[in-house]
Design brief:
Pseudouridine synthase; 19% helix; globular; 11-stranded mixed β-sheet; alpha+beta; 247 residues
Length: 247
């Protein structure tokens, strides 16, 4: 990828991008040069532009960047003080037991599996996420259903939403680290399916989307909300679920 992702909003202080799934925020020593969002941003927009926060490589959606040091300090302060409202959407493999629930756990990196997080009783960091189930999609023949879940992380730990949903028994669909191997196939939803024999899942990547951020603007100090539209694969998957899944 050598072009910037779509710009959601831009002014003299900040710029927000709609990052696709699969694009890392920052460079990794294992990746080829130019393979991250911030390398592209600095190449196209200048070295002074900095990311204010991060989302997982596999997660799609809103990424906020600051254009000046003053803006970076002001925005970063809001993330550190937990006054930014972060909103994610997840398609879960399984339907949560409650329509609203909160997960409050201590977590840390798994020493036995670097790059993966785990729940611990002590010597970790607190993590809290509030969840609201927006739509339920039960499936027939004993297959586990799916759900569209709104996620509001109150802390910002790596893999927080993914781990919290996993330990709740309804992991994010297609999560390679915390998932249950479930797939979403049209043939499982549509009776009399006559598609290709080598059918591909309706959505084949981590079904987690950074949908919106609410924060105070660095210059006006007024509250503003930016939103990233659902990516096409997630929108298509939801369309088929809404059409064929039993409620």
């Amino acid at each position: 990828m050598s072009v910037l992702p779509p710009v959601i909003f831009e002014d003299e202080c900040l710029v927000a991008f709609d990052k696709p799934s699969g694009l890392a925020i920052a460079p990794d020593r294992r990746d080829p040069p130019g393979a991250s969002l911030m390398e592209l941003v600095r190449e196209k927009m200048g070295p002074e532009v900095a990311n204010v926060h991060r989302i997982d490589t596999e997660t799609s959606g809103l990424v906020l960047c600051a254009k000046t040091k003053v803006a970076l300090d002001f925005l970063s302060g809001q993330f550190q003080s937990k006054t930014v409202v972060k909103l994610y959407e997840a398609l879960t493999a399984g339907v949560p037991a409650g329509d609203t629930f909160t997960v409050d756990l201590v977590m840390k990196e798994d020493e036995a599996q670097p790059g993966r997080m785990c729940v611990v009783k002590k010597h970790g960091k607190a993590s809290v996420t509030e969840f609201t189930v927006r739509e339920k999609f039960p499936q027939p023949a004993g297959r586990p259903g799916l759900a569209l879940v709104e996620c509001r992380p109150l802390t910002g730990r790596p893999h927080q939403i993914r781990l919290h949903l996993s330990v709740s028994g309804t992991p994010v669909l297609n999560d390679p680290l915390y998932g249950n191997g479930a797939q979403l196939l049209l043939s499982d939803l549509k009776r009399g399916y006559k598609g290709r024999a080598d059918e591909r899942p309706l959505i084949s990547r981590l079904a987690l989307h950074a949908a919106a951020l609410t924060f105070n603007h660095p210059r006006s100090r007024e509250a503003m909300t930016l939103a990233a539209p659902r990516p096409k694969d997630l929108e298509v998957a939801l369309k088929y679920l809404q059409k064929f899944a039993r409620r």
